[in-house]
């Protein structure tokens, strides 16, 4: 009878080291499988957030052009910086006098080569005129996984993220 109690007390001691090792191994394997998809999801989120920032700057430039009844342009300064400038008053080498400060996209997001294209004149800027109209154009953003998002500006000044 005493042997049975001793055996019962010993069996209530908890998990064995082997059982704990197996559980930890399974958890690590499942977590490792989820990391690549998490990285790709974060990259897609950064691409979407940067596209929204570019679209907001384009809409702000259009609003500024209409409110001033003059011309404003959205300039791509380098591979991931965008700024609204006034082509009539902003000196080319002094962007500090621009109507708005430069906005940096996420460091992993870049404009693709020759990203700004307009029907009449390929350049590195999209111009908005006093009535909110522009030449149709597009800006293409790319993340580190080479996924792209296109921001299209219609001749009527409407901005769409595709």
Name of the level-1 CATH class = Alpha Beta
Number of self-contained structural domains: 1
State the end-to-end CA separation: 78 Å
Beta-strand segment tally: 9
CATH architecture: 3-Layer(bab) Sandwich
Give the mean pLDDT. Answer: 82
* Class based on secondary structure composition and strand pairing: alpha+beta
Show unreliable segments: 118-122
Fraction in helix: 25-40%
Order of helices and strands: HHEEEEEEEEE
Tell me the overall shape. rod-shaped
Question: Any overview of this molecule?
Answer:
With 162 residues, the chain is of the alpha+beta class. It has one domain: 3-Layer(bab) Sandwich (minor pseudopilin epsh fold). 38% of the residues lie in helices and 23% in strands. It has two helices and nine strands. The strands form two sheets. Strands 4, 5, 7, 8 and 9 form a five-stranded antiparallel sheet that branches. A four-stranded antiparallel sheet has the order 3-2-1-6, with helices on one face. Strand 1 and strand 2 form a beta hairpin.
């Amino acid at each position: 009878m005493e042997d049975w109690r001793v055996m019962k007390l010993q069996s209530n001691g908890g998990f064995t080291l082997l059982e704990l090792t197996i559980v930890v191994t399974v958890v690590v394997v499942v977590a490792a499988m989820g990391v690549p998809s998490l990285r790709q999801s974060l990259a897609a989120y950064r691409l979407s957030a940067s596209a929204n920032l570019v679209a907001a700057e384009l809409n702000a430039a259009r609003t500024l052009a209409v409110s001033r009844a003059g011309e404003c342009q959205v300039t791509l300064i380098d591979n991931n910086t965008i700024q609204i400038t006034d082509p009539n008053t902003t000196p080319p080498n002094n962007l500090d006098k621009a109507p708005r400060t430069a906005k940096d996209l996420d460091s992993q997001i870049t404009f693709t080569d020759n990203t700004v294209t307009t029907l009449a004149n390929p350049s590195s800027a999209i111009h908005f005129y006093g009535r909110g109209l522009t030449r149709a154009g597009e800006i293409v953003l790319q993340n580190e996984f080479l996924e792209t998002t296109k921001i299209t500006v219609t001749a009527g000044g409407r901005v769409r993220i595709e």
